[in-house]
Structures are given as structure tokens and as C-alpha cells.
Amino acid sequence: MTPRAMSNRTRRAAFLCYHSIAEGGPPFLSLSPELFERQLAALGRRGWAPGGRPTLDALASGRRLSTPQVFLTFDDGYVDNFTSAFPLLREYGWPAIVFVLPDLVDRQAAFAWPEVRGHAAAYPQIMRSLSWPMVEEMAAAGIEFGSHTCSHAHLTRLGDEGLRQELHDSRSRVRERLGRCDVLAYPFGEWDARVADAAAAAGYRFAFSVRNDRGQPDDILSIPRVAVDHRDDGARFSLKLSPPGRRIVLSPWKDTLDRVRSRRDGPQPSGTPAAAPITDRSGWGSTSMASRDRESGRS
Q1: How do the domains of the chain map onto residue ranges?
Q2: Which residues share a beta bridge with 78?
Q3: Which residue in 286, 282, 258 sits closest to 273, CA to CA?
Q4: Residue 129 burial by CB count (10 A; 0-12/13-18/19+): exposed, middle or buried?
Q5: For residue 265, pLDDT beyond 90
Q6: How confident is the model at residue 252 (pLDDT cuts 50, 70, 90)?
Q7: What number of other Cβ atoms are within 10 A of residue 260's Cβ?
Q8: 21 phi and psi, to 5 degrees?
Q9: What is the third-level CATH fold of 4-296?
Q10: pLDDT in tens, 42-59
Q11: Which pLDDT score, from 0 to 100, does residue 288 have?
């Protein structure tokens, strides 16, 4: 049985998902270094301890830790994870898990899967991968690296052999460079039982999603994370750290509630942000999280 702390809905552990840390980056995929630093400082003030690989193993074994842990994860392996996030992580003493696409790391290539091509054209300096020397320097300093597959594919749409190749080949490539790779983040947060079984068969111990939309029990191969972006300052970030806030964000019914709110509030003029519900003191809008993620290519 998977320990409840791995569900990301308790005070014992929180799992956050970042992407780019850059000034003026793409909406929903990026936040400024200044905001990221404020978040790191806030985590320390509020009594959260830095969650690293040893504490992840401890939670999975069912150990009850004396201090609540927060795990910082980064999807895609943006170059600014090295230039902006890494110096701040070192300064504040925080580990992290970064999920990379090794084929892109080979060339420090631009991100080019269909869902982010618009962002890649608009933000060419930001929408690029880390290089292997960057990855190796971060790993030497204690940053954990995992796979985000080879091509950022929709894994649930692949046949069995294509799925095996995406999971096995990407893990092998990271292991060749760093000696270990047994953590995975599913592209777009998409997974099902077949994908989770394939991840286990490929040798992954832990795998991360962004939300369980299927109502299935959370597992160490489907750890849900809360996405963090440019809007998450002050009360909104505090709410995402609270167990009730995370339960709302991770609820499989959240998109249904968002659609009801959107119909209630009526259509918005083109280019006008939807108004947040009156009860929404955190600044959370009524736009569906899943639709925002699809539009931004998040995860």
C-alpha cells in the first residue's frame, strides 16, 4: 500500500512542479527568479524542510518524518534551471529533481514538440534545453536528474514498443551520463495503468504526474504534483502549500467545477481574462487547469 504522504494531499509532504525560471518567460510555464526566491524563503519561514531523494525513499517506505517535506521538481530541463534556479537552490540549501529529455540535452536544443512551438518562436532564448556539462555540474552539487522521455510524447497514445523505447532509451541515456536514473515525469502528466506498468518494467522506482484525472489510487508510479507559475505569490502560493488547497487543485472534479463556473460567469470578450469567483481570495481564475496545461504545453 502506498503511504498517504505520497498523495500530495497531507501536511507531511508537498510535491511542486516547476518549469522555467526566467524573467519575462511564457505564461503558465515560467516565473521570475525574484518570485522563485520569495517562494524558497517562504518555504523556510513556514517550517518546510527540503525534500530530497533520501526523504523520498523514506516516505515510500512508510517512515513518518518529524518535519514536513516539500519536493521541488522541474520538468523539461530548461537552460535557466542552471542559470537562474540552480544558484538560488544552492543559496537556500534546497535540492531538486529535474526531468530532462536526453536527445535535446545532447544538442542543448530548442524545445519543439507541437504544443510549445508557439512559445519556442516567441521565447527562443528561454525555450531551450540544458547541456550535459550543466546537468553534470548540477548533479555533482546534489540535484537529482530523471527522465522526461526522449521526445515528450503523449505516452498513453503510443503502442507498446514505442512506449518501451521512450521509457527505456531515455533512462539508459541519463544513466550513462550520471550513473543513476530511476525517476520519471510523464509528459503532460498523462499516464494510465499500462504506462505505469511499462515505467516499472523499464526500471523506474518513482514516477510523477500532475493530477490523477481517473480517480485511481495514487501510487509511487503516479505521484501527483501541483504546478507552480508566475501567478503564485503571497496567498495563492500559501493556498497551494496547504493540504486543503492541494486537495482542490488535485481533485479529478476540478475541471468540471471550472466549467460550471465559466458557464455561470458567461462568455468573456476576446482577450479579456475571465473573472475569478467572488469566493476566490487566492486569485485562482475559472479557466480549466487542464485546458491551460494543454495550451501551454505544460509538463
Answers
A1: 4-296
A2: 129
A3: 286
A4: buried
A5: no
A6: confident
A7: 11
A8: -120, 95
A9: TIM Barrel (3.20.20)
A10: 999 999 999 999 999 999
A11: 42
